[in-house]
Amino acid sequence: MASMLAHTVRNCPVNSSWAANLTARSLSSTSHLQAQVQPKTKKTLSKTGVKNVVLVEGVRTPFLLSGTAYNDLMPHDLARAAFQGLLTRTSLPKDAVDYIIYGTVIQEVKTSNVAREAALGAGFSEKTPAHTVTMACISSNQAMTTGVGLIASGQCDTVVAGGVEFMSDVPIRHSRKMRKTLLSLNKAKTMGQRLALLGKLRLDFFAPELPAVAEFSTSETMGHSADRLAAAFGVTRLEQDEFALRSHTLAKKAQDAGLLSDVIKFKVPGRDTITADNGIRPSSMEQMGKLKAAFVKPHGTVTAANSSFLTDGASAVLLMSEEKALAMGYKPKAYLRDFVYVSQDPKDQLLLGPTYGTPKVLEKSGLTMADIDVFEFHEAFAGQIIANMKAMDSDWFAQTYIGKKSKVGAPPMEKFNNWGGSLSLGHPFGATGCRLVTTAANRMIKEGGQYAVVAACAAGGLGHAMIVEAYPQ
């Protein structure tokens, strides 16, 4: 880590005006969102002998801060709502789906295969198989690409994929000692055996095991990793706060302009109908500057204001072979093209998935950064995003860690997360991937682009990147 710090600071000098200029440029560029733009004409990434897989539609429930309006629900309730919203928007016959795949991270034990339970609740045919995947923050990315594989291989024509996360009510376990005692108690055959086991109970047996957003391999929380990563790349607190303000400001503009069209209404039983994300809160640099370090105290730079927040929400997408979509009368939004998964050291490079994934997927598809019109990257932390930008813009990092002769280059900010990102919209772990892909497709339709790169980091040092190609309009 010390070596990385020395080289990256030398090759990517700190400039506190970087984020300010970034914010000004990106905000001034949003005027182009107000009018439809004709797409550019470039080569298509269609491959001979391989089925074209299309994104027909994508929806999501409003993403809410955990502990708010969804507080009394369960994960399958949100997943069911996303499924029903997708069915309503597409008028898809429920028995037309060949397979359902859903992602989640912190599983509710009562509905461990939440894909199946939510599908049944939404009214899908009981003959439609469904399974649940987990891959940390890229769980719904994995759900989608699994669906792409099923369609491309000819196994299926129609797949529904998505993801859900419900942080308002996470499983809390008894301690291991208590679990062992209770299991033994259940097997005891006589009263004497039961009393003997009860006599072994101690006060510390009753201490619960709380889930933690921490790496099993390193025991370090992701916030600590983000703080160390920011330090390694010389990312200042000012840069992080300015980037977070950019995210919230752009998300609010997009929300007010009606651009977040993937959001569906959701009537919470016993409460009002929820129509919008509730974590979008543009603040001021002065207010954000008052917050203390959240993880590395007292001198860390990662705070609650420049981090994504614990979120409840669900997403769903309809994927089809192009032939099937057209035969059923649909106008697809986009093609899902090449994708890659990457992994690296979960301690020092936990959050650098986009840096490793982007050049790899570009090389695989034969594209360059100049060909990309839309970038949608997951914003776990402002420091994580800026660190990735600096790593992608460093020849030394490319040569030392990625095995490339030169840098891939950082995404131009006028093309980057123009409708906000996870810092402002929210980040339900299992659902964010589908939001990224749907937003990329919707932005290309609105802005006239042809290619998008979707990228995300994930716990375990994992990462994902995908090329999304706009469908001819």
SSE layout and pairing:
Blueprint: H1 2-11, H2 17-28, E1 53-60, E2 64-65, H3 75-90, E3 99-103, H4 114-122, E4 130-133, H5 139-152, E5 158-165, H6 176-187, H7 191-198, H8 222-232, H9 237-256, E6 266-267, E7 273-274, H10 285-289, E8 311-321, H11 322-327, E9 334-343, H12 353-365, E10 374-377, H13 382-392, H14 395-402, H15 422-425, H16 432-447, E11 451-458, E12 462-470
Parallel strand pairs: 3-4, 3-5, 10-11
Antiparallel strand pairs: 1-8, 1-9, 2-8, 5-8, 6-7, 9-12, 11-12
Characterization of this structure:
This protein has 473 residues and is an alpha+beta fold. It has a domain at 2-27 and 216-257 and 336-468: Thiolase/Chalcone synthase (Peroxisomal Thiolase, Chain A, domain 1), CATH 3.40.47. The chain is 37% helix and 15% strand. The chain is built from 16 helices and 12 strands. It has helices at residues 2-11, 17-28, 75-90, 114-122, 139-152, 176-187, 191-198, 222-232, 237-256, 285-289, 322-327, 353-365, 382-392, 395-402, 422-425, 432-447; strands at residues 53-60, 64-65, 99-103, 130-133, 158-165, 266-267, 273-274, 311-321, 334-343, 374-377, 451-458, 462-470. Strands 1, 2, 3, 4, 5, 8, 9, 10, 11 and 12 form a 10-stranded mixed β-sheet that branches. The chain is globular and about 80 Å long. The termini are far apart.
